[in-house]
Amino acid sequence: MKLTNKHILSFIILITLVLRFYHFFDIPFTHDELSAFLRTQYSNLSEVIEFGVKQTDTHPAGIQVFMYYWIRWFGTDIWIIKLPFTLMGVASVLLVFLIGKKWFNDTAGILSAAMLASTQYMVMYSQIARPYISGLFFSLFMVLFWTNLIKKPDKRFAVNAIGYVLFSAFCAYNHHFSLLFAAIVGITGLFIIPSNMRVKYILLGISIFILYIPHLPIFSHQLSQGGIEGWLGKPRPEFVPNYLFYIFNYSLLAVALTLSILLWGIFKRDANKFNFRFTIIAALWFVIPFAIGYFYSVYVNSVIQFSVLIFSHVFLYFLLWGHIKPLKPAINLLLSVLILVINSYSLIYQRKHYDVFYHSPYVEVLLNHQKLDTPKEQTLSIVDSDPDNLPYYMKKLQIDSTFVWLPSLTNEKELIELLEAQKPFKKYVYFGCLANSNPVNIPIILDYYPTLVWQKNFAGGTCYLFSKEPSQTKPWVAFFDFEQTGPSGFTTPEAQQLADSISFSGKTSYFMDSTHEWSLNFSCQLNPIMKNENNFIDISLMTKIQDSFTDAVLVATIETVDGKQVYWGGASFQKFVPISRTPNTWIPVHHSIKLSDVPLVNDEMVLKTYVWNLKHQQFFIDDYGILVRDGNPVIYSLLENFNK
Question: Is residue 635 assigned to a domain?
Fold first, then answer.
């Protein structure tokens, strides 16, 4: 049998299916999927629109409405909900081939299809029931019909016009960025469609707008509510290279292969058959949505994420490979196999997709509580999970409720009081938390249960087991007990501030009186001590306060060498003073820095810490220490580069 490009495409589709449907029934919900699922549980469509879209979501209504009916018709099993999105992800690979073939040739289509088949970007979002892979599917179908209109407007005009209008409208109802992409495609067509078809083309654009009119009140309401900057930070300059690297699985080998094919194609290209027009279009369609999203996020309201760029990212492949002349099927097979092998290897063994993505932190924090091998009567379990998701998973997993839900404790004081009350009766503390858990919870627990028995890391969450067995000496970066000259990094305290009659340990402590607003400080280069960008810096001290004490703040900053602050954080002393405090006792105060959430712009950052006596109080300080605690190396691994 003679090898053809159709055989190669069939092979690529087969790999596409395998990578997306591997252990398909084991794929959990992501946070956004469960949120969308819970918002389909209203009794009628009007309530879904009002309470599931307008009041609680920032996306257009299209996918939420689709999910509402899909779940009513086919059920609530997770795999059932994901299935149409996964199938759209598979179909997108075929659509990319068809567009590449129409714009350039079979080779460009095959290479682009092989990339889409095997990158984590495409595999993961094909396994997520949200408006990302659906938006890509709609966008590619729209472009396919648009291409037919542009290249051969007189051939099957009605079919192509209806397809273009419908899928453009689907883009508009799917996501605001797929709406943006549809608008860019439509505007592009005005410049290149034959002049005798321009009026008809404009009428098609008007038809798309008419179809979108019913959604305008929802769009207007969502626009009035502001964006998502409350939880999504503004992009930093490294967002651009990080995104480009993410597209290629953060794999240097994949990048090297891509550039090698690019350069080889330039060397072998047929200049007479180079399709300059569609190469420029591919460049514009990749760059313009990216630029609009990036600069809007920087200067107006943060909206850009990797997910919202998925609709137009495929045109990068056309830009890279559209110049390659048609190759023989044997060479197409060789190149596509190289792409599939390298990407699949990085997907499975470097990105660890099937390990990391298939373990939901919402599930793991509960399952690890349920599966504890410590005696239940001797174990205090604390779970810090999302209040909206927790009831769903407890019911689905049949988890007992013999744990303390951390958000039911209003502040650090209540956690401290819980630990003090339970320590005489409990030998262990289990703590399961999500990525957004307050990092200071760990040093508070360590005050009462100082030995970390184990730590289990997941994308988006971490589970710990602590014991009250005595621990070894803490690995302090710096520790000042005020008994002698301070260690490197601490400024020298004034002699009159050293109290030799009161101390937590040893004989001497540091006295803050009402005339001193700032304590001694500590500073050091951050890079030599941090070890890993996902680690934590815990800053701790002991304080003894009077009954009239109001407050002071343990401050930590991270600065550039020229003094520009990239992080400022402070821990109020009052948060650590339990209501049941015995007078004249020493109290631990902690502040923790989650380094993965700090914009570490270079390797010369400086850590500083001090006490701010903002109320001009009198109190004592002792055992002032700084240590680095191991974090979770896979906490953001679904989107960031990591080493596990």
Answer: no
pLDDT at 227 over 60: no
Q: How far apart are CA 446 and CA 416, in angstroms?
A: 11
Residue 38 domain-assigned?
A: yes
Question: Are residue 19 and residue 134 in the same domain, yes or no?
Answer: yes
| Bridge partners, 11 (sequence order) | none
Instruction: Round to the nearest angstrom and report the end-to-end CA distance of the chain.
Output: 45
Give the residues across from 607 on adjacent strands: 524, 558
Residues 6+ apart with CB under 8 A from 108: 100, 101, 317, 318, 321, 322, 324
Residue 538 lies inside a defined structural domain of this protein: yes
Residue 2 DSSP SS3: coil
The encoded tokens of residue 375 equal: 């005696």
Whether 413 contacts 364, CB under 8 Å:
no
Provide the β-strand partners of residue 434. 461
pLDDT in tens, 336-386: 999 999 999 999 999 999 999 999 999 999 999 999 999 999 999 999 998
Backbone angles phi, psi at 113, to 5 degrees: -65, -40
Strand 379-384 and strand 606-612: the pairing is unpaired
In angstroms, rounded to a whole number, what is the distance separating the alpha carbons of residues 375 and 227?
47
Cα-flanking dihedrals φ and ψ of residue 517, to 5°?
A: -85, -25
State the Cα–Cα distance between residues 644 and 631, nearest whole angstrom. 12
Q: Are residues 586 and 450 in the same domain?
A: no
Range of the structural domain that residue 205 is part of: 5-356
How does the average pLDDT of the chain come out, rounded? Answer: 92
CB 534 within 8 A of CB 632: yes
Helix (H) or strand (E) holding 613: none
What distance in Å separates the CA atoms of residue 360 and residue 344, rounded to the nearest whole number? 22
The answer to whether residues 306 and 639 touch, using CB atoms and an 8 Å cutoff, is yes
Least reliable range by pLDDT among 22-31, 83-92, 339-348, 583-592: 583-592
Is this prediction's pTM over 0.90? yes
DSSP secondary-structure letter at 130? S
Judge residue 322's burial from the number of C-beta atoms within 10 Å of its C-beta, 0-12 exposed, 13-18 middle, 19 or more buried.
buried
Question: Using one digit for the tens of pLDDT, what is the confidence trace for 43-59?
Answer: 899 999 988 898 888 89
344 & 378 share domain: no
Q: What gap in Å lies between CA 151 and CA 160, rounded to an integer?
A: 11
